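User: Sorry, what's this?
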Amino acid sequence: MVSTRSAGKISYKRKRVDDGSSSEVDSVNGEPQNSDSEDETSQTDLQGHLSAVQTCVTQLVTQVKSLQERNRKLKGDLERLHHREESIQSKQGKRGGKSNTDLKNQVDSLRVIIQGLKRLQQKEVKKEANELTGGEMADSDDDVVYQMRKLSRRFQDLMLAAVLEEHEECRICLEEMKLEKCSRCSMSDLSSAMADCELVHLTPNDRWDELLDVAKRAGELDHLGGVSSSEEENEEDFVDDHRYKLDILRPHE
């Protein structure tokens, strides 16, 4: 230690080594300075912060590694499930099983069949309704009049149609004639063209059945669109056929 004297004051300067570092302490009038203690405190705080940051980084690295390992395991499980599904589908295909595409196509075809059956069912229902009501249903007076006109024309055509009796023979060549067949008679007029001949489609029994059907349909239309017989009888100008016949047959006094 070296001591000097200057201007009536004593100044001490010493040099010491503390843990490999040197520091100077100046004292004036015997009072020391605290710069070294403040530096040590700041260094201690900095080391604490660095240690905390290092700890956080270590924890984050550990978490990242754990997540990477978990992700790797999940990918492996997903690949195994995918391979298992492919193997199951391939086995089903080898055994004759149907894939999802085949099942979808089958469902679509079944839907088309169901729609066709529904349309067919609706047609059958309409057909049965027409049969029960004697043909087309008349919803208004105009429809009734139209249907009656059709039946009247049908009745006229049936009455004017030519009929062929069973086992009827030609009056000239005495050959048996058949329905819906036209053959040239060898003894008749050869100058007439074949196109002028008229085919016969009905026998008397067939025409009678057709006439009965026309009468039945006309009665149904009259019941649907016209007034009932009881209402007609209640009219003022109605003539009672039964009473009229009795009056005719009764002797005059």
